[in-house]
Write a structure and sequence with these properties.
Helix content is about 80%, strand content about 0%. By secondary structure, the chain is an all-alpha fold. Helix 3 packs antiparallel against helix 4.
């Protein structure tokens, strides 16, 4: 951590009357929650556009011929990436709920 970041962390913690560790944990949690909201919003847009519930559902529609592949292939790839990212963010957030092992 840079000296400037350490100074900012200390100042924020003092101003909020919390420990530096708590300030850092709360900041990280907020960042992860923000990222998760953005990912979920983009997933919602894609699944709404095609009337599917997941990347698996979208792939099934390709297989049965009810979804035109040419126009939606990028969205399928994007949805797959977003679902993976969502799952990773959820795992990181779950780590905040686990008891500390000091």
């Amino acid at each position: 951590m840079t000296p400037k970041t350490q100074t900012m962390l200390k100042a924020v913690a003092q101003e909020l009357h919390i420990s530096e560790e708590d300030a850092l944990r709360q900041g990280l949690r907020t960042l992860l929650e923000h990222q998760l909201r953005q990912v979920r919003a983009e997933i919602f847009q894609i699944i709404g556009r095609y009337g599917v519930s997941s990347v698996e559902d979208m792939e099934a529609r390709y297989r049965n011929g009810t979804l035109e592949e040419a126009d939606s292939w990028r969205d399928l790839q994007r949805l797959d990436h977003l679902e993976y990212k969502r799952d990773r963010l959820l795992k990181l957030l779950e780590a905040f709920d686990e008891p500390s092992r000091h």
